[in-house]
Amino acid sequence: MNTKGKKYHLLQVIIRIIPIQVKSAPWNCLLENCLAIMNGLSFALAVVATQNLFDAISDAVAGKAGYRECVIQLSLLAAVTFGQQIINGIQNFHGIGILLPKSGGKLTELIHKKVKRIDPVKFEDTDFLDDLNKAKEGIRAITMFCMLVFACVSFYGVYFAAIGTYLFKLKPVLIITLLMAFIPAMLAQIVNVRIFADLEGESAPLRRECDYYQNTICDREYFKETRILGAFHFFYNRFEETLKILTGKIWKAERKVALFQLMLDFTTFAGRAVSIYMLFTATMSGEITVGMFAAVFAALTQVFAIMQEVVKQHMGNMNRDIGKVVNFIRLLDMPERTGEKGETDFTKGIAAENISFSYPGRDTPSIKNVSLNIADGETIAIVGENGAGKSTLVRLLTGIYCPTGGRVLVGGLDTARYSSSCVFKGISGVFQKYQRYKMTLKENVAISDTTIEEDSNKIRRVLEEAGFEKENIGLEDMLSPEYGGVDLSGGQWQRVAIARGLYRVNGLIVLDEPTSAIDPIEETKIYKQFAHLAEGKCALVVTHRIGSAKLADRIIVMDAGRVVDAGTHDELIARPGQYAKMWAAQAQWYERG
Ligand code: ATP
Q: Residue 386: CB within 6 Å of ligand 1?
């Protein structure tokens, strides 16, 4: 199911998001609504208190009531206003200071859990990355949106129902003028929802692009290359161009919204003028008392101010936020990679049965009709030119991606049918783009297997096996200058990554060229060590270097997504072909070895 093109209407969004919000902080949501109801009632109560005060004053002036009655009514109004301020203060503090951060944490957790269940191949899909980015950015907006929904129902709902009844009882036509002022403005805001939802959809990829160019200019990871290559202006120009398109789109949307806003101001003004005129004529004809006039006049001022607040400010915020809420819902609705439970049995090896694979959004398959069996205890090397499909094949053979055609059996489990956590159990790997965790040396290694208790002796052993030598670095040392620790050289980082792969308990181990910063002789040494450690297990190694490939039991030669040759090193160099050519070109690298 593709959720990308799915449209969500305001009501649908509210129905979906409110239960999620309530679940994230149930007691706080309840308290927020109670406070809102009390707040709404206190506003309505203030109108009645105002009417009573003015009636008492006009009666006192006419000699029908005493001074004491005026003081009592004034005190009551003061008490209501004071209570109103207190409730308002508590509600503001609770909403922003407690509900918002509490829900923020829970909603972020929801995103993290969802991301864990999403098919890894989705991370190759730029649309998905946009959605994820948008959903992460929208966390705060979700709670703000829900708080507005709560306010609309519990505060404004109660307030308008109470005031509406009061006005209706006074003069039914008054309520119609209120609605007349309110409805066109509401309609204008509904149109705004569309504008901002569309804007969000269009601006997220541009924002991502801007962030990327900004990183290439400012980030530690990029700045050396950017400076040396003199690429600053290139990236800066790209940044400027993208920002210009982005701000152009924002400006266009804001302009449309401003026009609607103008319409809103005009209709609100007209509605108010008509209401006051009707109130004035009713007082002059003796239909209502002076106290009622004063109270309703004050109430109308407040009603219009509140309407302005609801429609102009709150509905405006809702419009801005709805796009973000929709992105969050869209992420939650994304299909997940689920599957049956099962145990891998690596004595059954790994099998690829006529598999093909295309990356999302690409027409040309990166793997075409590959069939391959890796027996238990066999080490396979995959060689081939850049872009031949080696890494993609490894991702399929380890179950990270599911083939778009054919099937892969890892330890007897069909990767498309069984849950990825079952398939991954027992697989360890070191990949080209391994991570340099800003953590201690110990954590950098032990993170590959959090299911076992951290074992310092084992960590030391695998570091040694990976050839990590740095006498002055201890297991507890932080590997990050940003956090007051040390940095390692590229080669040392690679050895830490290899140690991490070796540390994990496994039945299949993969080395996908993590060794490019190590010279060919050193790489061969590591691969030799690796082959020794992998004895009795299934092992997959990807390499461009024949010196490492020849250690494998069998070598697979890939070209343009297909397996074009296979055999032992001796068999492959004995016949003309890509492998023999590679061997001839690289033989001198190993002369001293
Ligand atoms: P190298 O030796 O350079 O690492 P490789 O043999 O491992 O290359 P792959 O990385 O598997 O090759 O790429 C195989 C094909 O798939 C290439 O044509 C590449 O352009 C394409 N490809 C790889 N990754 C992606 C991706 N994330 N999205 C789209 N196409 C991709």
A: yes
Q: What is the model's pLDDT at position 178?
A: 65
Smallest CA-to-CA distance from 431 within 275, 295, 540 is with 540
Question: Which of 232-241, 355-364, 436-445, 522-531 has the weakest average pLDDT?
Answer: 522-531
Per residue in 276-326, pLDDT tens? 888 888 888 888 887 778 877 877 777 777 766 776 677 767 766 777 888
Question: What is the distance in A from the centroid of ligand 1 to the CA of 123?
Answer: 14
Would the CB of 287 count as within 6 Å of ligand 1?
no
Is 464 tagged catalytic? Answer: no
Q: What's the CA gap between 33 and 14, in Å, rounded? A: 16
Q: Cα(366) to centroid of ligand 1, in Å?
A: 7
Please give the pLDDT value at position 181. Answer: 59
pLDDT of 411 strictly over 50: yes
Q: Is 123 close to ligand 1, i.e. is its CB under 6 Å away?
A: no
Is the separation of the CB atoms in 291 and 58 below 8 Å?
yes
* 432 Cα: distance to centroid of ligand 1 (angstroms): 12
**Do 402 and 119 touch, CB atoms closer than 8 A?**
yes
> How many Å from the N-terminal Cα to the C-terminal Cα in the chain?
55
Classify each residue of 322-352 as buried b or exposed e, where b means 16 or more C-beta atoms within 10 Å of its C-beta: bbbbbbbbbbeebeebebeebebebeebbbb
The CA 405 to ligand 1 mean position distance, Å, reads 18
The stretch 406-418 carries a mean pLDDT of 91
For residue 388 and ligand 1, the question of a CB distance below 6 A is answered with yes
For 380, list phi and psi in degrees, rounded to 5. Answer: -115, 135
The per-residue DSSP string of 53-77 comes to HHHHHHHHHTTSS-HHHHHHHHHHH
Mean pLDDT of 523-535: 72
- 139-148, 422-431, 483-492, 516-525: the lowest-pLDDT one: 516-525
CA angle 72, 75, 79 (to 5 degrees): 140
Asked whether 362 lines ligand 1 (CB < 6 A), one says yes
pLDDT score for 558: 93
In short, whether 392's Cβ falls inside 6 Å of ligand 1 is yes
Alpha helices in 219-314 (DSSP H): 220-228, 232-284, 290-307
Give yes or no for a contact between 466 and 495, defined as CB atoms under 8 angstroms apart. Answer: yes
Atom of ligand 1 nearest to the CA of 513: 4
Q: 543: Cβ below 6 Å to ligand 1?
A: no
Name the residue of 364, 366, 431 whose CB sits within 8 Å of the most ligand 1 atoms, as the mutation to test its pocket: 366
Ligand 1 centroid vs 367 CA: distance in angstroms? 10
Q: Are β-strands 554-559 and 562-567 bridged in parallel, bridged antiparallel, or unpaired?
A: antiparallel
Mean pLDDT of the chain: 83
Q: Of residues 32, 465, 513, 523, which has the active-site annotation? A: 513
